[in-house]
Write a structure and sequence with these properties.
Blueprint lengths: L16 E5 L2 E5 L12 E5 L3 E5 L6 H10 L4 E6 L10 H9 L2 E4 L25 E2 L5 E4 L2 E7 L8 E5 L4 E5 L17 H12 L5 E4 L5 E2 L2 H23 L5 H8 L8 H17 L3 E4 L2 E4 L2
Parallel strand pairs: 4-5, 5-6, 6-7, 11-12
Antiparallel strand pairs: 1-2, 2-3, 3-4, 8-9, 9-10, 10-11, 12-13, 14-15
Helix pairs in contact: 3-4, 4-6, 5-6
Length: about 290
Amino acid sequence: MTALDFDRKDRAAPGEAEQLTPLVRRILCNNPSAFTFTGTSSFIVGRGRVAVIDPGPDDPAHLAALRHALRGETVTHVLVTHSHADHSPLAARLKAETGAAVLAFGAAETASGEALRLDAGVDHGFAPDERLRDGETLAGPGWTLDAIFTPGHMSNHMCFALREEQSLFSGDHVMFWATSVIAPPEGRMGDYLASLRKLLERDDKYYHSAHGPGRRDPLPFVRGLLSHRRMREAAILQRLRSGDRHAKEIVAALYADVDPRLHGAAALSVRAHIEHLVEQGQARPTDDGYEALG
């Protein structure tokens, strides 16, 4: 399995506005967990007339921190990378306080109940005021953001590219503390891999991740993610060929060195890989699970 250069040294203090670059401030929500790492990062882009990316969960303390950081400024856009419950719920309250429209690709395509919802369950009530198209541009004084549709982690996931700093707000699509969970039915592995390849066609110099630290020169890591996923999928196919039929069996074999608290999330990603194998004609469902073809 490809070794990824993870960075788990996020030392940001929750509730404090951290100036990352001339145009970007970060405020960390105090919602740490095994799935959110140190918490969800909300970003403020610009000065005076600003955009807020990923307001976060419906957390009064985080709203107060955003309010404090934004004092004296006008919020012109509230942007949401995707509608997981640690990213989008606070958008409605921020809109009520600022009058800014909420913009995103849209609501999730599916809203079925999963036995495991993780800490980042779907925000079923989320609906943006305006739907963004892939490649659509938003601007304010001194800043320009391009919307980039990157489904996979979730069907409505978008990244936002800041032209002036050649940087990308990568949401949960690319994180540097861990790999993203791809949890069907909202997550699709084929879409996720295609979205990674889409980012490799760009020349962004820095990624701001929604969880944990960002990274300069991020494309080698993105290539590593693709390689990691390809090798993981090959290993899953081999487990199916050896007689495993269920994600739980495969997790026990392939994720023995992973924190047991994350095995449920790993099973969802394994299922996403199996579904991708089915789409490619390399596996099929059976009465008792799945089996390899060929």
